[in-house]
Amino acid sequence: MPEILRTYLPHLMDYSEEFWKSIGETLQMLLLSGVLSFAAGLILGIALVVTREGNIMENKVIHQIIDKAVNLFRSIPFVILITALIPLTKRIVGTFIGVKGAIFPLVVGCTPFFIRQVDMALTDIDNGLIEAAQSMGISPLGIIFRVYLKESIPALARSTTITAISLLGLTAMGGAVGGGGLGSFVIRYGHNRFYQDITYVSVIVILIMVSIIQFIGNRVIKKTSH
Amino acid sequence: MIQLIDVSKTFHSKNGTVHAIRNVNLEIERSDIYGVIGYSGAGKSTLVRCINLLECPTSGKVLLDGIDLTALDEKELRRQRQKIGMIFQQFNLFASRTVFGNVAFALKYKGLKKREIEKKVFSLLELVGISDKARAYPAQLSGGQKQRVAIARALANDPGILLCDEATSALDPQTTQSILKLLKDLNRKLGLTIVLITHEMSVIKEVCNRVAVMDKGRIVEQNDVFSIFSSPQAQITKDFIRTTSNLSRIDELVEEKSSIVRLKEGERLCRLDFYGAHTKEAMISHISREYHVEASIIFANVEVLSDTVLGSLIVILSGSAENQSSAVRFLTDHDIKAEVMKSA
Fold first, then answer.
1. Which of A129, A135, A224 lies nearest to residue B94, judging by beta carbons?
2. Nearest CA in chain A to B76
3. What is the ipTM, given to two decimal places?
């Protein structure tokens, strides 16, 4: 078996240690920035929805600030965003390279995308359900948790899946500008040295990761839809 | 008791200002079944939402047992809202929760034990006749079943009032009947005050004691249901009543010169409206005996409203002109509204 691998994947075997490390880094970036983006995106997404005109906690100022910020950050291409954030990243986490330096820009890049996804998922909730809860004397906070969030779990699972997959793409891009992970691994060897076996195996690994995310997402959606 | 005092609601939008309801005054007694009827866009949904302040009136007062709801703060308003249940045309059940979960929804903050909640929910489901579906999700239920669950859910806080916003409009006629019957039962058993919004006169006829007719944001007429049916004042009320009986067909037939209403020389086409006690008297045979006027019935319609009969007959009278006039006079003297529609 090692002989076959050595024949077909000579470079990958040479750099196998780095390969495994890169996979670990990618997962680390995905998980850490994923959790942070999920929390931030959910909170800000809910705030965006409930402060909208006519909604349960209408507040024009807060709504406009979140809305405009989301538009602003979504319009900046990620590679440029990372570069633009370098001074801020350095101040916050102390460094702007490696996995550590990649987390902050990843969160900034991913959160606005997720906020929009949350916005769509929650806005899809029939206003009649909100009215029904209000007519029972439920407080705004109760409506957020027991109607908005509870009723949109399948939609939020879908949004989370989509966001996680696009975040995986961002981690690879982060690799291009000093972050670690599979992205930087492929650029260093697959791209710069033209070790094609490294590129292809990395593609397969990422494909597997995407499939796993999608599989989990689909399971959650199926479990929670009635 | 619910009192709306000079309530108006105005919506402002880019396309201009909409006066959804204008200067509405309304009093609804405890344990009454009160109907509000109007065409879509008449403002009836806004009106019912002003009662529990889902829509806050632009001006005017909403009193619930003397408490002005418009003057309360958020928290106190939520407490008052628990005294007012509401059901909707589209049911608005929580799809992610079971029937049990939907009914238990409002009970969460009541500080009840799990056992007590269970007991309460099952007694409510029993009350609306759907206790076998406790573990089902709304998507697995029919429209009528969904509305029953919605009613159970609305009653979870033990409210004294139930607001029904077009609650039967999405249901087929048979299911509508069964839901209306349930509402009637709840009114009787629990002394529940019911405010019912509809665009169907048949629904009003079926359950309501009193009714307000709305048009363009105003209440144009309000009275007990029997008076509304027996002597409607506003044109819109007459139009609504016409939709519930088949008598309006006769106007079309006269228009079309149908053979059914073709009159022979000296005959008259006459409409007789009668109600209450006179329905038991043999007026038709009386006029034929006393005045030698024959009345052949070509259309008839009888309504039973709050245990009183309201009937209409379309008849062709034949006999001498003088006798016919006397017969009509006799009927009019006996509180039967006789109207000659056509004579030949």
1. A129
2. A137
3. 0.86
